[in-house]
Design goal:
Length: 383
């Protein structure tokens, strides 16, 4: 048999072609060979050595090559063939999920509302977060028990508070309420666990609860990059640089070509204030996506930490092959802590791309990420 069905895909083992509905999927030959090796051991662990020998039988190559091809397979196949990472051992191609029962019209409307909300949420601007909140609200109007919609709204309110788009500190309480509902209605969702973790962390400084929820998120979705990046952010906020580095590297091992991994890892480590930023990954990210607001913000933060204040204010270094971007210096407003909560040390500057700044005032209400890291660490229990 030369044809293997993988969800909507078909692998022709004779020609080593991957097809989708009769059309050839353009991926490298080595990627197909890695897929064939995983398929031959479907449901079992294929060690890294076995996969390297299958795809490069006459060559000596580094494991990083294998990691890149597995990441490309994940992007290509998606849920049709989930690939699980087995730490320090290898990978496992899981059985394709069973066809779900037919989706009802309301369920489809909720799913589309959540997808639309996440699309806007990932842009991290004032207007996009407002549109994200509206989309998640539409989903909840149809199904008030949608864990994914509650998770999205929790994350949206949290970012509106962190970026200063909503100056009322009660927005963090609203985020926590939706995070708790998300975890209650969708206890097996890694996204819901992350919403529960960070909304509780920023509203009540609940480090123990956040750590437990993030550990559950990683257990629920070990093959996704997001749970590892969430853990990197948590440890960076706590000031645990080594664990932040380990979690960031775990994310990079899963998907080394993800912009989210490149930018998120550097930004999280910046928050720890114990790491000298590497500008090269951020420059590569901006080559691929010059208007990526979070990458621009991360670049400004990195230049700030390196002491290159003028570059942080005016734009990326001249050697960066991207269009110059204006940066604005921000004087952070006092952080509205609840009564009795410890206050952060003063922070001289915060940095953000002008595209993401609140409008209507020359004095931005956007607090610096460094202030939040300091305030959270001052509340963290001793390790």
């Amino acid at each position: 048999m030369t044809l293997h069905a993988i969800g909507p895909f078909t692998l022709d083992t004779r020609t080593l072609l991957l097809l989708r509905e009769g059309e050839i999927v353009k991926i490298p030959m080595k990627t197909v060979e890695v897929l064939l090796a995983l398929l031959s051991r479907q449901g079992e662990i294929a060690t890294k050595d076995e996969l390297l020998k299958a795809a490069w039988p006459d060559s000596i190559v580094e494991e990083a090559n294998l990691t890149v091809h597995v990441a490309l397979l994940r992007k290509t196949l998606g849920a049709a063939a989930p690939i699980e990472t087995i730490p320090k051992r290898g990978y496992r191609l899981l059985a394709a999920p069973l066809d779900p029962s037919p989706e009802t019209a309301p369920e489809r409307q909720v799913r589309e509302a959540v997808l639309r909300g996440r699309y806007f949420w990932n842009k991290f601007t004032r207007s996009s977060l407002e549109r994200a909140a509206a989309a998640f609200g539409e989903g909840l109007a149809i199904d008030p028990d949608s864990g994914e919609a509650h998770s999205g709204l929790s994350d949206t309110r949290l970012m509106q508070g962190l970026f200063g788009f909503d100056p009322d500190r009660r927005v963090f309480g609203v985020a926590r309420e939706h995070g708790e509902k998300a975890a209650g209605f969708a206890p097996l969702s890694a996204d819901a666990q992350a919403s529960l973790a960070f909304s509780g962390l920023f509203d009540r400084f609940d480090f123990m609860g956040a750590e437990a929820a993030l550990e559950k998120a990683r257990a629920l979705a070990p093959g996704r990059v997001e749970p590892h990046l969430w853990s990197a952010l948590f440890h960076a906020l706590r000031g645990d640089t080594l664990r932040a580095l380990a979690a960031a590297r775990a994310a990079s091992a899963i998907d080394p070509i993800s912009l989210k991994v490149v930018v998120g890892s550097g930004f999280h480590l910046y928050l720890s204030e114990q790491y000298e930023p590497d500008l090269d990954p951020l420059q590569r990210a901006l080559e691929l996506e010059p208007e990526f607001a979070v990458a621009l913000w991360a670049m400004g933060l990195a230049l700030d930490q390196l002491g290159r204040f003028e570059s942080a204010r005016t734009g990326p270094p001249s050697s960066t092959p991207v269009r110059p971007r204006p940066w604005s210096r921000i004087s952070p407003d006092p952080w509205p802590f609840p009564e009795g909560a410890p206050r952060p040390r003063p922070c001289s500057t915060g940095w953000a791309p002008r595209a993401s700044l609140p409008t209507g005032s020359r004095r931005s209400r956007l607090r610096s990420a460094k202030m939040r890291a300091q305030s959270l660490r001052s509340s963290a229990p001793s390790k």
